[in-house]
Write a structure and sequence with these properties.
This protein has two domains: 196 residues, no CATH class; 197 residues, no CATH class. The chain is 77% helix and 0% strand. It contains 15 helices and no strands. Helix 2 runs parallel beside helix 4, helix 11 packs antiparallel against helix 13 and helix 13 packs antiparallel against helix 14.
Amino acid sequence: MAAADPEFALQDAPVVGRASLPRAFLVVAPAMAAANALNYAFNLVMSRLLGPADYGALGALLALVLVGTVPGVALQAVVARHTTLAGEAVGRLWSRVLVAVVAVGGALGLLTVAASPAVRAFLHLPSLGPCLWLAAALLPLPLLSAVQGMLQGREWFRALAAVLLVAAAGRLAAGVGLVGGGLGVSGAMAATAIGSALAVLVAVPRLRAQGGWEWHRRPAGPGPWAGRRWPGRGSPAAAFGGEVAAAAAGVLGLLLLANVDVLLARHFLAAEASGLYAAGAVLTKIAFWAPQFVVTLVFPRLVTATDRRRLLGRSAAVVAAVGAPLVVAAALAPGLAARLSFGEAYLDVGPTLPLFAALGTGLALVQLVLFTGMATADRGLYRLPLAAVAAEAALVALFLHGSVAEIVGAALAVVAALLATGFTLALRAGREPGPMSRAGPGNPRGRIR
């Protein structure tokens, strides 16, 4: 998978000095694993420092932050896509994006401040302090997502890894200091804001030095979107926002698909059985998140690859190879896997653990399909996860809700059907270069502008 391989080549590549994928893997995969571990450690440490009552409040506030990250994931992908396509106009693109996301972040913060009394009352918080820090935590999210997309689109993976690690480590360190100092839930939320702010500060020098964005004057000449064909009508900025909104719907569908089975299990199964299902779902999450680095690494290549079908096939093989050992290990020793992971009380979930591992791997493949759609601006692929959520809910509610095995089997069947449809559509679209790189009037060689 060297950078010079045909399947990783660009069409008249606008990105100079592309990263070597094997070397990038050695940077990004450990960084993402370490960041996830630090985020887990943050929750573990906060639960101990705060106690059950205050940690319950923190968990609810962090859930609101998670909701705010859904459009952020889409924004990162869309910014990465346009960064890859922008070529020499990347500085002008970044200028416009940065101005927009700073404005959006400020508006989001102000709206959260205005809603603070209602949030406080709904969550039964003792003061407005945690709600105000919630606003501070949400304020930098659009900017952080945008700069991560810029780094990803340029394939500056070392800088991206540093951003991920600083955000997680900064939050943990600040949380220990502030909560340990007696600031409680407000301190934990302040730590979340501090981690995001530190990550942005790490990224800005690299972007400014290499990207040459222009804050101080109106850029001369055609903008970064000049000459491109956008779906629908309206200004390029409106089209860009529409692309982010459509991608956010796809991300929301993916997150719902990854969690709706646990909610259905809680509703239809007895309390003990739903607990077994929740334990098995932990393995699903592990298998889902383990190959995240694949999408991060190949996304810029999916945008402009001349042989996208081959790249997608190889990427899917890597994702499957990461998940396969979990499935095999759970199948060979289900009792041991349940005992080591969850304890003696959860031995009954052992026989279904291979299904949970397979479901997580399938969801990781769904994510790859979804981000292929984002790379090609194929909105048909965005709709598949939401449609799958509806299908899974109907299948479980009407037919398969009598046991842990039935519900996880239904979820796996829906994901398999989604993958068959999604890969068919993605491979069909992958026969040609992306719409931004096709030849046409004023662009006879199909050069990406």
